[in-house]
Amino acid sequence: MEWSKCYRKLEEVESRKPEDRSQYQRDYDRIIFSSAFRRLQNKTQVFPLPGTTFVHNRLTHSLEVASVGRSLGSLVGYGLSEKNQYAFNDDVRTFYQYELANVIASGCLAHDLGNPAFGHSGEDAISNYFKEYENENIDGENLKSHFKDVEWKDLTNFEGNANAFRLLTQTFKGKSQNGMGLSSASLASILKYPCSSMGTNKSSKHTKKYGFFQSEKEQFKSLVNELNLHKESDLPLIYRRHPFVYLVEAADDICYNIIDMEDAHRLRILSKELVASAFIHVIEDLKLKQDSHEGIWKKYQTIGDENEAIAYLRSKCINSLVNACAAEYLNHDEEIISATYNDSLFSVLFESCPSLVQIEKISLEKIYRHPKVLEIEIAGYHIMSGLLQLYVPAVLRTNKSKLHRTLLTLMPHQFTPDEYMSPYLKTMCVLDHISSMTDAYAVEHYRKLTGIEISQPV
Fold first, then answer.
1. Which of 58, 154, 194, 451 is the most exposed place for a label (fewest CB within 10 A)?
2. Cis amide bond preceding 243, omega within 30
3. Angstrom distance (rounded) from CA 105 to CA 344
4. Nearest partner of 110 among 54, 72, 166, 159, judged by Cα
């Protein structure tokens, strides 16, 4: 692959007026004004409904990841232009200096669009429903027998990353053609796992999970062929990552590792002293020249407001990590463009920054296993599973009961399956409906359908 081939230059971009938005700026705007993006405001990031204490949800997390991603895109874009000043023509140089930041910011905005309610617990609930009910009788045959092996693999390993690709590329009933109509560069930047569910293998970063459902296989193949990504295998279908993926991934890694600590402090799960010490040690370990950790610590001690003091260290910590990840990318740009880089930018920093290992340990022990977090995971699991038990038989049975027909009228028009669809595509319509729900709506819908709460007449 070549740096000049990482994106496709569109005629409309070439002929636009200087004051017009570029395709990559339009990508960002289309995502941020989409319904799928707005729904992230009521999807759990880590901490559930914390009352009056403001912490992050999926929407604020995505906005912050986009901000960090834009910085990474700017640093790397400028660095690549400098390193390739004689190899890049004016158009390529312009893209990397001014547009790469927009591409990465768009990818960052979109990276969590496919996550269902209740975070990873929601994903687990969807996957385990199909495993648990694989022998349920549907029209005289068990549930599993209605699907091909590769389709069953999708359903029993539901993946938010693949669901994001579906949201961005699928033509839903009554909606625009080709999803959001994003550029190939922005779409490729979210494909952390460019393989089918049959190709997953936890021994490699790019196959740890999968990036597309069988329903979007043709869209995926069209994208990777257009950008000439390196194919690793035909059966199962596996490709190497696009070079821009590493920057979106790094922005996400930086944000959730650092900001979850800040949220835990605001909720009084972690002490100010513990969080401050963790952040300053990251800055100290990275030993970047922008700011001395002594000067940062001195200023931190002058800030009287506790939350503001931690926010100051958080900002300096993120700045150090952004610069370190950008440096790692530029130091290994030849491996990245040749598809031989086999790591993530953030995880490489663990070798030179042992304080990141400590943050990961604290997060696992004191944040992700906190009782309030575990409670919402368990509750969310049961709610999502309960909704699937109602809707999946309703779309698959040929002779539908009155209950099944009534349930189908409650599905939004854009997700309503047609009778000519295969069982797999009908089931994907159910997953579109349920995975799009916010935490609050899933709870409310489940309570009403199960009779826990009765709707009042209008």
1. 451
2. no
3. 18
4. 166
Q: Nearest-CA neighbor of 319 among 258, 273, 360?
A: 258
For the chain, 458 residues long, give each residue's pLDDT as a single digit of tens: 899 999 876 544 455 566 678 999 999 999 999 999 999 988 876 555 444 445 678 899 999 999 999 999 999 999 999 999 889 999 999 999 999 999 999 999 999 999 998 888 889 999 999 999 999 999 999 999 999 999 999 999 999 999 999 999 998 887 777 789 999 999 999 999 999 999 999 999 999 999 999 999 999 999 999 999 999 999 999 999 999 999 999 999 999 899 989 988 988 889 999 999 999 999 998 876 556 778 888 898 899 899 999 999 999 999 999 999 999 999 999 999 999 999 999 999 988 889 999 998 998 888 877 777 778 788 888 999 999 999 999 999 998 899 999 999 999 999 999 999 999 999 999 999 999 999 989 999 999 998 887 766 55
Listing DSSP states for 194-205 in one string gives -B-GGG--TTSG
Q: Which residue, among 127, 133, 117, 121, has the nearest Cα to 200 in the 3D structure? A: 127
Q: Which neighbouring-strand residues pair with 195? A: 238
Three-state secondary-structure class, residue 292? coil
Tokens of 109: 């905005």
Tell me the one-letter amino acid at 277.
Answer: S
pTM over 0.85: yes
Q: Please give the Cα distance from 87 to 82 (Å, whole number).
A: 10
Q: Extract the tokens encoding 266.
A: 């605001």
CB 268 within 8 A of CB 260: no
